[in-house]
Amino acid sequence: MTQITPDAATGLDHAAQRASKLAEITAAFGNPFHVTRFDKRDSAAALHAQHKDLPAGEKSEARAAIAGRVMAVRNSGMFLDVLDDSGRLQVFHPIKEVAPEVTMLLRLLDLGDIVGVEGRLRRTPRGELTLDAERLVLLAKALESPPEKYHGLKDVDFRYRHREQDLVATEKSRVTLRRRSLIVRAIRRALDERDFLEVETPILHAMAGGAIAKPFQTHHNALDIPLTLRIATELHLKRLVIGGLSEKVYEIGRLFRNEGISPRHNPEFTTIEVYQAYVDVEEMMHVTELLVSEACRAVHGGTTCPFNGLTLDFTPPFRRASLFDLIQARTGVDFRLLATREAAAAEAARLGVPVDPASNRGQIIEAVFGHTVEATLLQPTHVLDLPKEISPLAKAWPDRPDVAQRFETYCNGWEIANAYSELNDPREQRRNFEAQAAQKAAGNPEAPGIDEEFLKAMSFGMPPMGGLGIGIDRLVMLLTDSQTIREVIAFPTLRPLRP
Asked: Can you point out the beta strands (E) in 278-387?
């Protein structure tokens, strides 16, 4: 492969060399950036598939026209490797036979340049499908050098900051992000086929709601009002069901939470939220299993996939287990018998679980679960019976008022879904909002206030319904064997480099 190095005679660095070559090309052929189109009739992958039976050493009468990025230059341009969005194809120029202007253009090509090539196909004696070029067009000049072969693979920070170069250099990055698209498409298709209506709700909110999280704050100049970026789509989606737009709605969209960054957390992330009238939490379990298993099928052809040395099995039905039973199995403590916050806090302290002094009984039980159980839930598991105190938008069981009709789905120790029978009593919902507002007044930045618009909508009459949220990014991580969320988000949030 031709390596681009500083010119010893001129002392020009990489960028200057490329600028000098661009000037030569422009003088001889015209400005390549003025080219507006190329009739790209074929893709590399399609040509490889169509001519897989062409014997070594044989020529085809088939003509082809490809376009893509120059990834390798060998023998002074006699051989080029051209990469498009489907793969690579070798291009051949018989240097002794081509016109002088083609020889000149080949001499001025650099790795990373965008070219269009037309010609006839053959398979070399060594078995490589090759396009014998009859026409070569420079479509764009790369004025920056691509990363060295291994630089784009090993320098993780560089990869995330310059995703366009990472995608060129790293096949796994291309595969992962394409699989993400397949996963979202499969989820959307599964819902559309069951008559769910896809909708869009506002990103700018007057008040953050639908979750407990610290929002990003902004300001609208024309209206001169403070606004927040949404932390959930829940409340607006419920209002659409209340209004009768559809009994089954969903939205796939970005959420924004002003929280920490970790291998599983990015300040902006994607979820799907699903709401269906006249069903309960039980139906939401079936919907969760449907969407997750269909997503797995879309990229693996079945309901199992590899992840970090494990084989994850997303075949419905998933395992179901009570949160209290799971804690008791790990600790020997039945928190159902601890009716007060003080008793729960004492047991948590004995187990070595740190507890916020302002936390309630449900939050303490949640902390114990996170500390002792979460990491053990490797295969898909619906965790049932979450405390009502941490479920302000969910109904309680009539015979167990301290337990919500709610589940969270875990896999590889990660929460990937959250669902419940939606609370539709506006009186109880107001009491819950007031309790959260009190927490906010006491200094909790994640607690929401009282959403009067949503309460008014509920008071108009909200049917019983089930609701579900799935974290798309974590699901993609599981289905692509990715260990960090930054691998599955094209442009993750990063701290700016200091000059």
From this structure: 304-307, 310-313, 319-322, 381-384
Mean pLDDT of 225-245: 97
Please tell me the pTM assigned to this model.
Answer: 0.92
| CA distances, 44 to each of 57, 119, 123, 140, 283 (Å) | 19, 13, 14, 19, 45
Comparing C-alpha atoms, which of 323, 363, 371 is closest to residue 345?
A: 363
- pLDDT class for 101, splitting at 50, 70, 90? very high
Strand partners, 275: 249, 467
Q: How many helices (H) and strands (E) does the chain have?
A: 15, 20
Contact 463, 240 (CB under 8 A): no
**Residue 93, Cβ neighbours under 10 Å: how many?**
24
3-state secondary structure of 408: strand
pLDDT digits (tens, 9 = 90+) for 110-163: 999 999 999 999 999 999 999 999 999 999 999 998 876 644 457 888 899 999
Return the CA Rg of the chain: 29
State the sign of the Cα–Cα–Cα–Cα dihedral 242, 244, 245, 251. positive
Which of 304, 301, 289, 255 minimizes the C-alpha distance to 478? Answer: 304
3 state DSSP class of 446: coil
3-state secondary structure of 293: helix
| CA gap 310, 381 in Å, rounded | 15
What six digits make up the tokens of 22? 């661009």
pLDDT digits (tens, 9 = 90+) for 34-81: 999 999 999 999 999 999 999 999 999 999 999 999 999 999 889 999
For residue 58, what are its two tokens?
Answer: 């044989």
Nearest to 150 by CA among 164, 172, 169: 169
Cα dist from 98 to 78, 138, 260, whole Å: 10, 16, 59
Query: What DSSP assignment string belongs to 85-116?
Result: TTEEEEEE--TTTS-HHHHHHHHH--TT-EEE
Residues 6+ apart with CB under 8 A from 25: 32, 105, 108, 138, 141
Structure tokens that stand for 424 in this block: 């539709």
* DSSP character string of 472-483: HHHHHHHHHT-S
